[in-house]
Amino acid sequence: MDKIMKPDLRIYPDPEALNRAAAEEIAHLARVAVAERGLVTVALSGGRTPCRLYRLLAAEYRDGIPWPQMHLFWGDERYVPPTDPQSNYCLARESLLDRVPIPVEYVHPMPTHFPNAEDAARDYEATLRAYFAGSGPTFDLILLGMGAEGHTASLFPGSPALAEHEHWVVAAQAPAQPPLRLSLTLPAINRARNAVFLISGSEKVKAVQSILKNTGQAATRYPAALVHPQERLIWFVDRDALGSATNK
Ligand code: 6PG
User: Fold this and answer.
1) Residue ranges lining ligand 1, Cβ < 6 Å
2) Domain CATH number, residue 80
3) Model confidence over 13-34: pLDDT tens digits?
4) Phi, psi dihedrals of residue 127, rounded to the nearest 5°
């Protein structure tokens, strides 16, 4: 049975407060990484929640972030063209990338132009292996969300991708639209120094409470419970997602 890593739980009254606090923390982690290593490597998440965060990072928090030293990757992608509104890259480009001075050569979207998604996964893994030459994929920060059934990135409950321990990137099926995805695997995610979850919305209460209570089956039922970064695991959670039973 996998051990669940206890998150640094930060609770906010609403999504706006959650996103502002997350922006503050991300700016801080980025500055620390650049001060220590001269660059910061980030993997972005998708879904709806981070859109407001990305806009805040590109606006009110823009000046406190070392954009020219930031290298950007993605934790997962929907297997659609980069111009498709469902694309996580499209979301980030419109809400963040077009507004900040990250060198274009430092932005590494997951490719979705290969006829076969497995080939795309292998291609992105080659990109990661070249970038992290010699070491494993060590993101300074990986941003993650959690779905109502406890998925994270595009690792869904029961997915064979959860058992992948050799590859860093896989093609995966999602029980959601669009069904075909690319996703980092748990070994790649868990080599990150810091993992930051943004969890907002009442549909996530059951998964949030199960994982926080560290119930026996939480680790097997909810992929988000299997994220164990090397340094810090921080959950930014709003009241809706926390629900009432957990009196924090
Ligand atoms: C995706 C995301 C996914 C997301 C969760 C939460 O491609 O959809 O990477 O893992 O983070 O589904 O999504 P919301 O933030 O929209 O609730």
Assistant:
1) 45-49, 76, 78, 88, 145-147, 151-154, 201
2) 3.40.50.1360
3) 999 999 999 999 999 999 999 9
4) -60, -45
